[in-house]
Design a protein that fits this description.
mainly alpha, single chain, Hypothetical protein af1432, 2 domains
């Protein structure tokens, strides 16, 4: 488990009542898949989503094993591209026979639905609380990190763009997703993401500040 989360040691998971056999399987077979994805969706991203999902679940009446699995699988569908990755992630969960060692068919369907519903641009709200948890956890709103990841994504997927065009693409994305009229939805008002989102919006409104950050990470 040396490549896993810092928080994902054996004692932590026992305390959180997460089945260590599930952890062992996820750490050895699922997490390494993220090594093949773009720079914004590597192990650090899935580990962050796992950590935040677990933190949110502490205050809710949910099965933390399901929460953990959903977070681990939520972006595995990127193996077939970004456009339909949420749907492919759901298919991967339903097709994984190993999960049937620990979960019922109903639980597997719930986890698949949650993975499918996690995408920020989804038109409908997540169908279950599990979908809302992973959707919220997937949005660690650290302003500089978001700008950095947006730049990374642009360079990975649109390498032909000039520096100025990369900046324009970044700003368009930030406004569309995180702006005051953006499509991002937060599902837990008590989440620290609420304050972070407001900080990011203030940064987006401050062109001088965000240009400095762009220059730092470009």
């Amino acid at each position: 488990m040396k490549n896993g989360l810092v928080i994902c040691d054996f004692l932590y998971f026992c305390h959180m009542k997460i089945n260590p056999d599930i952890v062992s399987y996820i750490e050895s077979e699922i997490i390494p898949r993220y090594d093949n994805f773009d720079a914004a969706h590597q192990r650090d991203h899935v580990n962050m989503v796992i950590q935040q999902s677990i933190e949110i679940s502490k205050f809710l009446d949910v099965d933390v094993n399901m929460v953990y699995v959903i977070a681990a699988y939520h972006d595995t569908g990127l193996c077939e591209g970004r456009e339909h990755h949420h749907e492919v992630s759901a298919q991967i969960i339903k097709a994984d026979e190993n999960l049937r060692k620990w979960f019922t068919e109903e639980q597997i369907q719930t986890m698949a639905d949650a993975a499918e519903d996690h995408r920020a641009s989804a038109k409908n709200a997540p169908r279950t609380i599990y979908g809302r948890i992973v959707a919220e956890a997937d949005r660690f709103i650290d302003p500089e990190t978001i700008v950095k990841r947006t730049i990374q994504y642009g360079l990975d997927h649109y390498p032909e763009l000039s520096k100025e065009q990369q900046y324009d693409r970044m700003m368009q994305h930030l406004h569309e997703k995180y702006g005051r009229n953006g499509y991002l939805k937060l599902w837990f008002p008590e989440s620290p993401n609420t304050a972070r989102l407001e900080k990011l919006r203030q940064m987006i409104d401050n062109e001088e500040e965000i240009k400095d950050i762009f220059e730092k990470y470009f």
